[in-house]
Specification:
Strand content: 25-35%
Number of strands: 22
Distance between the termini: 55 Å
CATH architecture of the largest domain: 2-Layer Sandwich
Length: 472
């Protein structure tokens, strides 16, 4: 079994992995830059090491991170999500140094990171993909020719893209010509590759993804689906498991497609197969994420399976403890990404000092956070400061619990998306379980309503606590 893990990440996901290590009796090693020296993951890990003054580049130096893992006696490395988590170089270096990479093999990361290659692999496996170019485009004229064949609107995408970057919707040829160089530039800067491709735009789709696990003994299972349709500019805001928009027949079919996709790629460890569902309820493969997802918590809540623990066990070469028949789902779960952003100011990042933080509690409530009272939220990273996950037996109870938990949580000193999430839950369309990726765009009024006013009871508690602290 693995004895010591270096966590090549920061923030709430690093804290999440530290906790899994603690439960499994594994020594955890954190890394941090100067900007992160007061990070919660640094305080929670068994060991921690400074990787330099550069706030971002330190987490992107694969050679230095693996060297540190070897020097500190680690026999495994967990990449978390973001940063180097889907960089095949990190997995390659780990393999050469005899350190277990807690994720899929480098060749799988490489092939699935290439969106054109991923589409080709799925087509060969008999999995439906959206119509699009056969490969990367040589120039804008080839893009225009392909788009005229498949019909507008189309999506112009970076071949090596991800995370909502390097992507533009084009309504017509003029849009396509105007956006081509922009996407090429974004792709080059963000992913180091100028290659782009085009595919048919599924108008107002539902974004459904399936969590899979695969071990080294040929066992592949799915842990049901998540609905990620509530998103803004291709960035997810709310995730739900299972999707309230699928029936049992669709759910089973999608699970089988995801397992087939994993087998076709010879996948190992945890991953996610993402699909788009159109207005006619047809599914199309979108991409495969070769890492742990931000929203893995909702799947854990409905299945009771600790995905990070399973990642570590699989990396150690152990056989998965579950067959597909063993995996059951119970109830519904919903995750809210609590971002340090101002919804009423075009979601502008709001970094600074957390003057007070109150975590919610009660039955069916889980918080994954990297903040605490007095913590200075650094401006160098993404704005995610906490994830609030609620679970309930029924959809209606989930909505009620979500509102209660969002009113319970308190993050003060910075603007957050908490009030915006409350407005989403109050939307009749959302409550009815009928929404797609256009939901946020079609409901601009939710931003205007999202004024954070704590309940009187909470305000009284805060006032009393402040008075006591000041000796009044």
């Amino acid at each position: 079994m693995i004895k010591k893990i270096l966590i090549a990440n920061r923030g709430e996901i690093a804290v999440r992995i530290v906790r899994a290590c603690a439960e499994m009796g594994i020594t955890s090693v954190a890394i941090y830059t100067d900007a992160d020296r007061h990070g919660l993951h640094v305080k929670k890990a068994d060991e921690s090491y400074n990787i330099g003054p550069d706030s971002v580049a330190g987490y992107l130096n694969a050679h230095r991170i693996v060297n540190l893992a070897a020097a500190t006696g680690c026999d495994a490395l967990h990449p978390g999500y973001g940063f180097l988590s889907e960089n095949p170089l990190l997995a390659d270096i780990c393999a050469r140094r005899g350190i277990q990479f807690i994720g899929p093999p480098a060749d799988v990361i490489r092939r699935m990171g290439d969106k054109v290659e991923a589409r080709r692999t799925m087509q060969e496996a008999g999995i439906p993909v959206t119509p699009g170019s056969d490969g990367s485009l040589a120039n804008v004229e080839e893009a225009v020719s392909c788009a005229s064949e498949i019909g507008y609107p189309v999506m112009l995408k970076a071949t090596s893209g991800g995370g909502g970057r390097g992507i533009r919707r084009c309504e017509n040829e003029k849009d396509l010509r105007r956006n081509f160089d922009r996407v090429v530039s974004e792709a080059t800067k963000a992913f180091g590759s100028a290659e782009v491709f085009v595919e048919k735009c599924i108008v107002n789709p539902r974004h459904i993804e399936v969590q899979i696990l695969a071990d080294h003994h040929g066992r592949v299972v799915h842990l049901f689906e998540r609905d990620c349709s509530i998103q803004r500019r291709h960035q997810k805001l709310v995730e739900i498991a299972p999707s309230p928009q699928l029936n049992e027949e669709q759910r089973k079919m999608l699970g089988k497609l995801a397992v087939r996709a994993a087998k076709a790629t010879r996948y190992r460890n945890a991953g996610t197969v993402e699909f788009l569902m159109d207005q006619d309820d047809s599914f199309y493969f979108m991409e495969m994420n070769t890492r742990l997802q931000v929203e893995h918590c909702v799947t854990e809540q409905i299945t009771g399976i600790d995905i990070v623990r399973e990642q570590i066990r699989i990396a150690a070469g152990l056989k998965m403890q579950y067959t597909q028949r063993d995996i059951k789902r119970r109830g519904y779960a919903m995750e809210f990404r609590i971002n340090a952003e101002d919804p009423r100011n075009d979601f502008l990042p709001s970094f600074g000092r957390i003057t007070r933080y109150f975590a919610p509690g009660g039955i069916g409530v889980r918080t994954d956070a990297a903040i605490y009272t007095g913590y200075e939220l650094p401006p160098h990273y993404d704005s995610l400061c906490a994830k609030l996950t609620v679970w309930a037996l029924t959809w209606d109870e989930l909505l009620e619990r979500g509102i209660r938990a969002l009113n319970d949580i308190g993050v003060y000193g910075v603007k957050t998306t908490i009030p915006y999430h409350l407005e989403i839950l109050k939307s009749a369309q959302f409550q009815a379980g009928h929404f797609d990726t256009s939901f946020v765009e079609m409901h601009p009024e939710l931003v205007e309503y999202s004024v954070r006013r704590p309940p009187r009871e909470l305000a009284a508690v805060i006032s009393a606590a402040v008075a006591a602290h000041m000796g009044m």
